[in-house]
Each structure stands twice: as C-alpha cells, then as structure tokens.
Amino acid sequence: MKSRPNRLPGKIFLLAAGLLLLLYGAVTPLLPFIGQRATGEITTVRRELGERSDPLPNRYSYSVGYEFTLPDGRIIHGNTKVIGSSFNSGIAKGKAGVLYLPGLPWVNALERETRFDAGKIAILAAGAFLCFMAFRQGANSRTTSRKPWKLR
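^ thats the sequence. predicted structure below, dont judge the formating
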C-alpha cells in the first residue's frame, strides 16, 4: 500500500499566511475607528528601481519613510510604498497624519492609506482563499461509494 505524504505542514503554512492577510486587510481600514491619531513627519521619499511594467508609461514605485512620537515620548518609525510619475511621487516631505493601535504602535499607517479600497478587498479575498485551501479536502482523501471503471 502506498503511503500518502504528510500534508499538515503545508496546510498550517496556508492557514497562517491566509490569517495574516486577513488580519492585514481588516486592521488597516479599521485604524480610523479603533486606532489613535498622531501627527507624524515624512522623512524620506525615494524612487525605487526603474520604471514599473505597467500599461501606463512613466510610473515609478516610491518608498516613503515616516516617524511619529507617542504620548510617552517614544519615536516609532514606519514606511509605505506609493506609485507616482517620473517627476512626482504624489506625497511630499513634511507633516502627515498617522494612525496606530495604542497597544501595538508598530501597527500603523499613514492616514491616507487607511481607506477601504479595491486593494484591501483583494488582500482579504486572497487571505480567505488561502484559508479555504488549507481546510479543503484533497480529491484523493475522499471516499467514493462507486467502484472505478473497468475496461472489458
């Protein structure tokens, strides 16, 4: 009798990845309701690599670094990515609103990144799909009541 490979580590990995995506996709849009607002400072805006391979020409990825101060005086750093044109990232250095979880201040985002949009829906859908795949039964593990076809 053939032994079946152990699929448990793969299922655990799929479940963990799916739950992390679900958590990220849900927490970021909820920050305006469950988080606290702070005024932060955008410290760096840097263009990365070359032109993106988008259908629209002259689009580049920018890395944006920011920091904000907690009420107890600790400084928390954060970063995000934005897409801009060849001459403008769409975000400038200076003051910006930051939302964060009071108990976990490293869970933070710029205020402009916390709206619920199609990207967050895609992340939630990908997380749900991975969780579904983790609990899905494989075709070989099902028991069938029919006998296989026989050729005569």
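Residues 31 and 99 are 6 Å apart (CA to CA).
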